[in-house]
Design a protein that fits this description.
mainly beta, four-stranded antiparallel sheet
Length: 113
């Protein structure tokens, strides 16, 4: 059974940083892409970053230069480093992975002024 578990969310002030983790299990982590999405209240879910099995990354324009996606294949874990956080980054962040695109339960990030 494919499972993804996010952690690392929290409340920070604008300009601060957080590091989100996504622990994966139930499939071959190394050979699969990973993605991070977020959803703010009243807004549509949006893709934030992707990381494929070759290490190629893509970022939404809103987070380029501030967020960094990475993975540790030995630990079956993906990461999303959030720097220079803005109030508009407030959202629930989800990781997505596995052969069928399984979603985690999400972790809340709240940025205040």
């Amino acid at each position: 059974q494919v499972q993804l578990q996010e952690s690392g969310g929290g409340s920070v002030q604008a300009g601060g940083s957080l590091r989100l983790s996504c622990a994966a299990s139930g499939y071959t982590f190394r050979g699969n892409c990973m993605a991070w999405f977020r959803q703010a209240p009243g807004k549509e879910r949006e893709e934030v970053a992707t990381l494929d099995s070759d290490g190629i990354t893509n970022y939404a324009d809103a987070v380029k230069g501030r967020f960094t996606v990475s993975r540790d294949n030995a630990k079956n874990t993906a990461f999303l480093q959030l720097n220079s956080l803005k109030i508009e980054d407030t959202a629930t962040y989800y990781c997505v992975g596995g052969p069928d695109g399984t979603w985690g339960q999400g972790t809340q990030v709240t940025v205040s002024s």
